[in-house]
Amino acid sequence: QVQLVESGGGLVQAGGSLRLSCTVSGIRFSVYTMGWHRQAPGKPRELVASITTGDNTNYADSVKGRFTISRDNAKNTVYLQMNSLKPEDTAVYYCKASFRSSWNYWGQGTQVTVSS
Question: Please, are residues 53 and 32 in contact by the beta-carbon 8 Å criterion?
Fold first, then answer.
């Protein structure tokens, strides 16, 4: 059974920081590209950041320079360090594991709320 369990969300003031974690089980974590997506109320889900098996990273323009994605294959965990948070970063954040575009798994999401 594949499980992706996110943690680390919460309420933070603008300018603050949070670190999200996503721990994966049931798949060979090291061969999967990992990503963080988010969905705000009334908006489509969007890619925030991704990291490949070779540690190549990609970021949405809106978070470049503020967010950092990383992975620890020994712990089957991907992280999203979020600094200088803004109210517009408020959303449910989802972890996603992808392999060759055919195998995709999602976590249940964790709420991030940034107050102004």
Answer: yes
- 101: confidence class by pLDDT, cuts 50, 70, 90: confident
> pLDDT grade, residue 9 (50/70/90)?
very high
Task: State the distance between the two ends of the chain, measured CA to CA, in whole angstroms.
Answer: 40
User: Half-sphere exposure of 16 toward its Cβ, with a 13 Å CA cutoff?
Assistant: 15
Determine the distance from the C-alpha atom of residue 31 to the mean position of all C-alpha atoms in its chain, rounded to a whole number: 17
Beta-strand (E) ranges in 2-90?
Answer: 3-7, 10-13, 18-25, 33-39, 46-51, 57-59, 67-72, 77-82
Q: What is the pLDDT of residue 88?
A: 97
